[in-house]
C-alpha cells in the first residue's frame, strides 16, 4: 500500500487535483463560463459535435461525485456520462490500477480480433462471465458501442430464426438472393418509448424523439404500445394491471397479424431515454411468454440499466425468478459492449458476427477493478439503500411541490414535472446550484449518480432539489399539477 | 532521453520482451501449437469468437515487424491486424508515450460525449484536422468502428438530401411518418465487390461474401458493377479503359432508372476485403462526376486504405487533383473512427449524429505519436519505396511462378493465384516459414505490413515467397495459369 499511496500522491502532485471530495458543490460562474464558451466556439469551427456538449471537464481536477468544469465550477454529478460512469471521477483504486503495468502493451497497440492477447480468453472468462445473467453462458464483446450490441443481437436472432426455418444449410439460391440484396423478410418487435441506438436497424426500433428518425430510411418493423403506468404503482394497481393486460393483448395481436415473421422482441427494463418508463415484472414476463410462444427471442437491452445502479447488477433481475431472456445487450457502465446469450444461439458459422476490434482489453482491466471495488465496498447494497432514501424523500416532496411520478429501482430513478418548461427551468436552476441533472423524456428528470453516491450526497442533492423548486416557484411558475 | 531510455528499459525488464527485432522469423511449432490449441479450446467454451482467431499473441514479447505467438513462434507480420497496426509492435516511441502521464485520467474514466475533456477540442484540431483531405474541413469522431463511420456517412447523406428536397423544416406530418417507421425512400449506391462493414445498412452495401449477408434483412438499395481490370494496367490499357467506360455507363443507368432517389455513392479506393480491386483514377473521377450530376454525395470509404500504407496518407490522393469526395470515412490505422466532411454537410440539428462515446482521447494520443514518428522517420516515402521494390520483385516472379495480377499502391499490395486451393496452400506454407499473410478475395494474398516495413523485411518476405512457391510446386500443384 505504501507504493500505491506514493503513486497516487505522485498523480496528485503532477496534477493539481482535489485531494478529496469537497463538502459541497461550488459554482463560480454560470455554465458555460467564459472559458467554456471559448472552447465551444473553438470546437464549433470544425465539428457538429459541439452542440451536444454540456460543459468541458477538467478530468484531472474532478474527484468522486464531483466534476470540475473548465471554469473551475465544482459540480455534484447525478447524470454521470449518461449513466456510464460507475465509480465517479478519479477513484483512487482506478488510478492505482493504471500504474499496474498491465495497460502499457494495450496502449502501445490495440489488440486485434484475429490475433488477440494470450490473456484474452482468461480475461473474458474471469472478468465478464461471472456477470452472466442466468443461463446466458456465452458472451461476445464488440467495439464499445451499445447500438452495435443491439444490432448484433438482431443479427443473432435473424440467423437463429433462419436456421430453424430452413432446417438446412442455405442453398445456392438462398445465397444468390442474399447477394442481390433480396433480404429475408424478418423483423424485430419493439415498444413505443423504447430507445435502442442510432444505427439504421436500431433507430427503426427506437420510438422516442423525431431527431433519431427524421429524414432517414427505416425498416418496416412492427411496434407495440407500452403500458401507461400511474405512480405510485400500488396505489393505482387496478388501472396499471388493466393497462398491462391491454398492452400484452396488443403484443399478441401484433404477433398474430404480422405480415413478416418476428424473430425477436427487444425491450429495456427501464426505458431510459424514453422517459424512464417501466411496468411491473408481470408485464415483462408476459412479453417473454408471448415471444417464446410465437418463436421469437427475448432481447433485453441493458445498455443503460446494466452495471448495478438499479441495486442489482442487471435490472431484469427485478423481474424475479421467472425472468428468462435469450440475449442481454450491454455497454456503458460495463466499459465494454457486447452480448450475453444462450449457448444454443451461437451462429453456425464464423464471421456471422465479427468486426476487427472485438473487445478492448484496456476496458476489461477497468471492469475488473470496478467489480472489485463494488464487491469490497458493497456498492449494490449501498445503491439500494441510497435509492430508497432518495425515492422516499422525493415522494415526500410531492404534495408540497409539483414533483410527481417518482419511479425507478435503486438510484436509477426519475420524476416528472407538469410541463417541459418546468423540467427545463429546473435543470438550469439545479446547475446554478452546482448539481448536474439530466432531462428524462419530455418533462422529467433522470437521477443517475454513480455507485459511490452515499447518503450524504443524497442529502446534498435533496436540499438543492427543494431550494431549486422554491426558486422556480418564487419566479411565478404555476403550482397547479397537470 | 535519459528518462525515456530508463522507462523503456524498465518496461523491457518488467516484461521479458525481445530487446530488438530478430534477424529473421523463427518457428518452433506449427500454428496453433500446443498452448495455442489449449487457449482456443478454452475460449470455445464461452464464445463464438474463437473461430476467427488465427493465433494468440504475446504482446509483451512482440517487437517491430515481428509478432510472437503464445507458443514462442516469432513471425514476420505482413497482415498487421487487418491493416490496422501502423508502427508494428511495441514501438519504443509508443511505449515511451504511455509513460507520459497523459493517459491516466482517460484510463481512470472514459470521456463522455456530453462532458468532454478540456483538451478535447485542441486534440481534435491539432491531431486530426491536419489530416483532413482537401476541402473536408470538419470532422466527427465516433465509437471506434469503421462500420459505424460508414453508417454515419449514410445518415449524413440522407439528412442532406432531405434538407435540399424539403427546402424547409420537417412538417408535423413528416415527423409523424418517421415516428411510425415510414422511412424516407432513399438509397446508397455501392459496387460489386465492395465491403463496408457488418451493420444492417453496411452489409446492404457489402458485396463480397455470403457470410456477411445470408439470413438477414437487407435494404433494397442498388449496386453497380465494378470494372474487371487486367494487370499490369498499362499492358491491357484498351481492355481496361473499355471496361471502365462500360461500368460508368452502368452507373449512369442505375441513376437514371433508380426507383428511389440515390443520396450517396460509397466506394473504396481499393476494395480490400473484396480482393484488392481498383481501377484507374479516371474511373473514380467518373463516378464522382456522375454522383454530383445526379445530386448524390461521394462517400470514400478509407477505413482500410487510410493512414499511409498506400504511400499517401489517403489512398484517394492517388486520383490526383480532381479528386473531390464529399465525405471520407476512417478507422483502423487512425486509431479513432469517424468522418471528414465538407462543412455544408453539417446536419442542421444536434443529435442527428450522436452517441455517448464520441471519440476516445487515449486513441487520439496514440495517433499524435504515430504521426510524429511517420514524419520524423519519413515513413510515407519509405512505404512508397519498399512498395515499389515489392511490386517489381513480385512481378519478376510472375513468369516463373503461378503469381499473377500484382496490384496496389505503396505496400498496400495484392497478388493472385490460379485457384482458392493454391492461395490457401500458400497461406499455410508461408506461416510454416514464419510469415503471417492474409487471404484476399477468393484466390489472392494481401500484403499489409505496417509502416515500419523496411527493404530488409521486404527481402526476407520475398525470399520466403519463393521458397513457399517451390515447396508447393514440389508437392505437385499444377503450374498452369488459369
CATH topology of the largest domain in chain A: Aspartate Aminotransferase, domain 2
The count of strands of chain A amounts to 14
Mean pLDDT of chain A: 92
Largest sheet: spatial strand order of chain A: 3-9-8-7-6-4-5
CATH superfamily of the largest domain in chain A: Type I PLP-dependent aspartate aminotransferase-like (Major domain)
The biggest sheet of chain A amounts to: 7 strands, mixed
The SSE string of chain A, one letter per element, is HHEEHHHHEHHEHEHEHEEEHHEEHEEEH
The oligomeric status of these chains comes to: homodimer
Helix segment count of chain A?
15
Which class do the helix and strand fractions of chain A yield?
A: alpha/beta
Going by CATH, the architecture of the largest domain in chain A would be 3-Layer(aba) Sandwich
Beta-strand content bin of chain A: 5-15%
The top level CATH class name of the largest domain in chain A:
Alpha Beta
Q: Largest interface here, residues on each chain?
A: A-B, 132 and 132 residues
Instruction: Summarize the amount of helix of chain A as a percent range.
Output: 25-40%
Cofactor (chains A, B): pyridoxal 5'-phosphate
GO cellular component, one term (chains A, B): mitochondrion
Family (chains A, B): Belongs to the class-III pyridoxal-phosphate-dependent aminotransferase family.
Protein name (chains A, B): 4-aminobutyrate--2-oxoglutarate transaminase
Amino acid at each position: 500500500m505504501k507504493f500505491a499511496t506514493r503513486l497516487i500522491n505522485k498523480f496528485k502532485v503532477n496534477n493539481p487535483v482535489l485531494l478529496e471530495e469537497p463538502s459541497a458543490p461550488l459554482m463560480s460562474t454560470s455554465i458555460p463560463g467564459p472559458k467554456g464558451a471559448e472552447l465551444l466556439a473553438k470546437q464549433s469551427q470544425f465539428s457538429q459535435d459541439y452542440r451536444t456538449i454540456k460543459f468541458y471537464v477538467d478530468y484531472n481536477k474532478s474527484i468522486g461525485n464531483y466534476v470540475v468544469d473548465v471554469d473551475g465550477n465544482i459540480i455534484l454529478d447525478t447524470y454521470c456520462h449518461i449513466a456510464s460512469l460507475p465509480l465517479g471521477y478519479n477513484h483512487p483504486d482506478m488510478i492505482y490500477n493504471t500504474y499496474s503495468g498491465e495497460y502499457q502493451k494495450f496502449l502501445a497497440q490495440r489488440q486485434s480480433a484475429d490475433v488477440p492477447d494470450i490473456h484474452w480468453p482468461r480475461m473474458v472468462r474471469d472478468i465478464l462471465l461471472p456477470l452472466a445473467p442466468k443461463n446466458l453462458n456465452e458472451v461476445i464483446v464488440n467495439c464499445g458501442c451499445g447500438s452495435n450490441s443491439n444490432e448484433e443481437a438482431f443479427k443473432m436472432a435473424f440467423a437463429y430464426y433462419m436456421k430453424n426455418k430452413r432446417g438446412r444449410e442455405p442453398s445456392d439460391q438462398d445465397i444468390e438472393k442474399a447477394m442481390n440484396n433480396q433480404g429475408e423478410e424478418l423483423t424485430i418487435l419493439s415498444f413505443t418509448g423504447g430507445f435502442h441506438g442510432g444505427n439504421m436497424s436500431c433507430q427503426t426500433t427506437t420510438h422516442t424523439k423525431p431527431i433519431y428518425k427524421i429524414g432517414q430510411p427505416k425498416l418496416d418493423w412492427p411496434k407495440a404500445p407500452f403500458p401507461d403506468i400511474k405512480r405510485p404503482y400500488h396505489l393505482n394497481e387496478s388501472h396499471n394491471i388493466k393497462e398491462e393486460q391491454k398492452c400484452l393483448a396488443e403484443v399478441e395481436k401484433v404477433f398474430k397479424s404480422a405480415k413478416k415473421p418476428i424473430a425477436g422482441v427487444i425491450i429495456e427494463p427501464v426505458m431510459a431515454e424514453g422517459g424512464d418508463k417501466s411496468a411491473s415484472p408481470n408485464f415483462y414476463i408476459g412479453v417473454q411468454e408471448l415471444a417464446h410462444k410465437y418463436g421469437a427471442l427475448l432481447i433485453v437491452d441493458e445498455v443503460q440499466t446494466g452495471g448495478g445502479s438499479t441495486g442489482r447488477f442487471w435490472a431484469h433481475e427485478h423481474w424475479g425468478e421467472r425472468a428468462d431472456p435469450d440475449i442481454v445487450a450491454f455497454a456503458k457502465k460495463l466499459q465494454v459492449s457486447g452480448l450475453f446469450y444462450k449457448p444454443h444461439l451461437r451462429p453456425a458459422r464464423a464471421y456471422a458476427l465479427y468486426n476487427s476490434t472485438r473487445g478492448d482489453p484496456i476496458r476489461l482491466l477497468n471492469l475488473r477493478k470496478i467489480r472489485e471495488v463494488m464487491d469490497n465496498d458493497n456498492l449494490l447494497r449501498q445503491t439500494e439503500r441510497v435509492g430508497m432514501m432518495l425515492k422516499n424523500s422525493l415522494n415526500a416532496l410531492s404534495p408540497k411541490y409539483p414533483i410527481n411520478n417518482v419511479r425507478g429501482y435503486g438510484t436509477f430513478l426519475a420524476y416528472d414535472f407538469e410541463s417541459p418548461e418546468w423540467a427545463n427551468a429546473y435543470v438550469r436552476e439545479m446547475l446554478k446550484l452546482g448539481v448536474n441533472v439530466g432531462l428524462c423524456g419530455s418533462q422529467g428528470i433522470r437521477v443517475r449518480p454513480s455507485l459511490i453516491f452515499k447518503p450524504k450526497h443524497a442529502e446534498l442533492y435533496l436540499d438543492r432539489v427543494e431550494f431549486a423548486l422554491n426558486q422556480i416557484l418564487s419566479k411565478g411558475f404555476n403550482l397547479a399539477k397537470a
